[in-house]
Specification:
The structure is a homotetramer of 321-residue chains.
Chain A: E1 2-7, H1 12-22, E2 27-33, H2 42-45, E3 67-70, H3 76-83, E4 91-94, E5 109-110, H4 113-122, E6 125-127, H5 131-145, E7 153-159, H6 174-177, E8 182-183, H7 191-202, E9 210-216, E10 223-230, H8 235-245, E11 252-254, E12 270-277, E13 280-287, H9 295-306
Parallel strand pairs in A: 1-2, 1-3, 3-4, 4-6, 5-6, 7-9, 11-12
Antiparallel strand pairs in A: 7-10, 8-9, 10-13, 12-13
Chain lengths: 321, 321, 321, 321
């Protein structure tokens, strides 16, 4: 049994972490630090937890926790770790972008278990990947791992409204988003940097471009991603490559037939479909942006770091219908 | 051709008024007054109007306009009319609650054409009914007009997110409202006052209670209302009463078969269904909260005041699917 | 470890049972009987289970199973049990309406744990309550249990599209239901019989009417129910009554503040809010129609029958956002 | 005043035609032919028309009509015109795919007014473009018209559930589609043929590939399309090209700022945004699949054929919120 803490407890990713960790057999949720909600019951914000927990948001951290999850806005994790210190044994999982790009200035390990399981198992600090980055990386890294990304990749992905965070904005207002659709940050989404970084680690000669158009969907959760690129082999060869890449994966599966969001929403899974058209390979991936794209993957990384079964606490029931 | 002005142009009701008046053959949209948006193109806020109008939000009013619509927050119409004056010929339609209850202090006429057509035609100042008030009044006033409201009325109605106004709030955030449902202000909704007022004008001996539970639906537009009460007569007698009440109505129809929102959304119609169960009469009414429940009815009142055909500019295509 | 079977495996309630039982630590899912899907992988229909189970729909039943769940259309459970027999030890949970009304012709126990826990624990055959029946019963039975239902009860409830079953129909077509709302079967819903039956068992002098209007909401899962009736006591007295009624309940909680669907969807919970207005008590209840309103409650009943902890396998993570 | 007939009256495109033509000042809706609905009131199927029309579906056609719209399934228009004949003066607008590709065997003119206005004005028979074809053609044909399509084009578009027709299917069931997303027919959508045909008519040396991934969105109406390709010029030069291409267009506008579905749904408009990134031009287009993508464009073509103002009867109010 380990003691876990959460920093920044009122947002979506913290909420999902709380839901998972409260039910995790190896974890005691030691504290949830929130300056804005301090002293309030956790179930007053995450109201689905009514009757399940008497936890109160805390205005103080416990520096002796075994593991701490940082659920802070981008840029704030660096600041928080400068201002606060934890015991030597404390492992940290950061859900922001702050440490995702490897650098001499920090020792965070990129927490994508499908391609980094061993390093994660030995790590003390984990940079949890972005939601789009996870969906896209799982779609294309098996090709990079085999030096097969030879030309530009064309990526289009759509995310739910939880992808935009809890703050209110025009595009998260119900009357705007209901029955609507739009794209944003075309070719310039901030996750492109970490994806390119992952690609080049696996295929150092990669010189092509990842063309990525993100979109806002009128649903709450989920990412649907299509990516296609030049591929010489057959569809069967592609499947072999991907099945080999994911044969040990706890949550990532190559599947036949159409993939869609309801197959994965409210689970930690990523489903991947492969189709060959002419000389192009189309890879479609789906996942839940808050789980495999954030908090679920964070717990998966925690499981690896502490030697728990990789799927412990993460065998979640999809709502599906 | 009359000159029309709108006060408070960035919200939902102003937006709908603009859309209707721009296409109204007898109206020139003279000015749209908005302090927050002054000098901006109207199509920068109401972006569906791209290519249709070069109008600019104005920081000044034209006191010589033939008709002025007040689209201000509740309480602000009184304040605005205290601070601004219009020419003697200027007719005013107020969409707020400020003047809906008849009082010696003002000369506004309640703008429910089905029960007030003559007074509206002669009026200079109109208090446009509330959205729930319109749906409920059209459901029960035919009974009041025949002194048939003998016992309590049990009313349950649900409104779309536009009913809550453009401001951002927890319950209008997409991730809250999507696939959700809740009730609010049970038995205490502010529209009860104007509905009771209308009932008592028609049936002065009414002493029973209107029990009204409003609900938030996860859709953008529309009100669906069920109301039931004791009724001695047969279903056929009820239909005769209602059909007589609405035989001259331009937009309110008694219909057979189920009623639902898609029959009326984006139109100025109200559809009404009557069913008898035991000694209870169930009346179901549906309308678009922004049109028959606000801006459409405001234009209907304008048409009556200026002697235009009652449905002019209001023959709107439902989206239906 | 017990062996469980499911009869009729392709629908919503069977799907939810499969999801729950696959993760239940005391249950082995022995067979899923489906004539229409026999020989197909379960994950080809319930596609969220990809990677989790190799189970195949079976064309045969195992009469030696410890527990069998009947997920058949109303009327078909009687027929099925006439045509098939199980071992003496086999316990049966029927999710249809067929055995919900106590009768000399059968020995099924009504499976509402909050009011029937002891009988359920000793039962061999369980009639699982209807979804609306559960939401409404949990809202009003504490009053009946105290002989406090003195006048008519006015009930309005809305259910998601899964309430209509998997078959395609006009009102479950996306283009009809999206952003729509309607009522149906007013005062005549088939669940009224079992609710009245439950009320009269607790308050034999009940002579008033349960007035119930069901509605179709444009969401997939969940029931939101408001019920009000005459109540002499204070709001605090009402809370005491309800809190006492549910002090041992595993999933039913009296809560402060607004209740809404996202608090309970994808969980086995029922949340209840109490408000006093004048001499009326308003009770609002919310639950997931497929879980507490069907399959979750069925497993809860199974847990009680086999002496497992009541919430085993049912500590489900809400999606909430 | 011309006499119009509709063949196949119960579907989405027929419904929209009826709504538009009933309000068109130059058209009398002479007959609506439907074998499945013959003798039923039109308002019993298109229920938003309650109170507006007493029209009855007809089991017979009027061969003397001035214009006839064919709203039949793909393949059935050819069959219908083989089996039925109309007067010499009768103009025909076919909404199916049957005549969209020019061929010696027929004399239908492709009804995309932005690029074919003169031929349409002189035409007797019009093949109305497909919905995706319209959105994509309006996005890329200005480049083709200037011989600027030099490399592959990468197109991703999403359509609402009305795009799949009125028949019930798994992917149009509410519980499947609600809060879901998926792609289909990648690189092989049937509209690619007519788009390629249009491109090559304008740029005969076009040898590149249109890579098109269509998607199913969880909304009822609308198409959102992104297309990008190599473009040497600046963003300003692109805007000049497009503004020139659409300077006479009645409903297609180049716009600044984000485009989204609510700007165009329930109107006959297409909005287009242009953005330059590196050496790529990104074109985003939005339209209503049932209006500019079907019935609205059909009426636009009718207006041109009969010399009516191009936008007559088509100045539709968006619902926007």
């Amino acid at each position: 049994m380990i003691e876990a803490g959460i920093i920044g407890g009122a947002g979506y990713t913290a909420g999902e972490l709380i839901r998972i960790l409260l039910r995790h057999p190896e974890v005691n949720l030691n504290f949830i630090y929130s300056t804005s909600q301090a002293e309030k019951p956790v179930s007053s914000i995450h109201q689905d937890l009514t009757g399940e927990t008497g936890l109160i948001f805390s205005g103080e951290i416990n520096p002796e926790a075994d593991v701490v999850f940082l659920c802070l806005g981008h840029g704030n994790s660096v600041k928080f770790l400068n201002d606060n210190s934890f015991s030597d044994k404390t492992k940290i999982v950061d859900l922001s972008t702050d440490y995702r790009i490897a650098a001499d200035s920090h020792s965070f390990v990129y927490g994508l278990p499908e391609f980094n399981r061993e390093k994660i198992s030995d790590a003390k600090f984990i940079a949890n990947p972005g939601c789009f980055a996870t969906a896209i990386s799982l779609a294309i890294l098996p090709l990079a791992a085999n030096d097969l990304l030879k030309e530009d990749v064309h990526i289009n992905a759509v995310t739910g409204a939880t992808g935009a965070g809890t703050s209110l904005s025009e595009t998260t207002h119900f009357t705007w988003r209901d029955n609507n659709y739009s794209s944003y940050k075309a070719f310039e989404h901030q996750h492109l940097e970490e994806i390119n970084h992952s690609v080049k680690k696996l295929q150092s000669d990669f010189r092509s471009t990842l063309n990525f158009i993100p979109n806002r969907g009128n649903f709450s959760r989920g990412i649907h991603c299509t990516a296609y690129t030049h591929f010489e082999g057959s569809q069967e060869e592609a499947k072999e490559i991907y099945q080999k890449a994911y044969e040990d994966a706890a949550f990532t599966f190559v599947t036949e037939g159409e993939v869609h969001l309801k197959q994965v929403v409210n689970t930690n899974k990523c489903l991947i479909r492969l189709q060959k058209f002419g000389n192009k390979l189309l890879i479609t991936s789906v996942l839940d942006n808050l789980l495999k794209g954030a908090s679920g993957q964070a717990v998966q990384n925690m499981n690896l770091m502490f030697g728990f079964p990789e799927n412990q606490g993460l065998q979640l029931k999809a709502s599906y219908f």
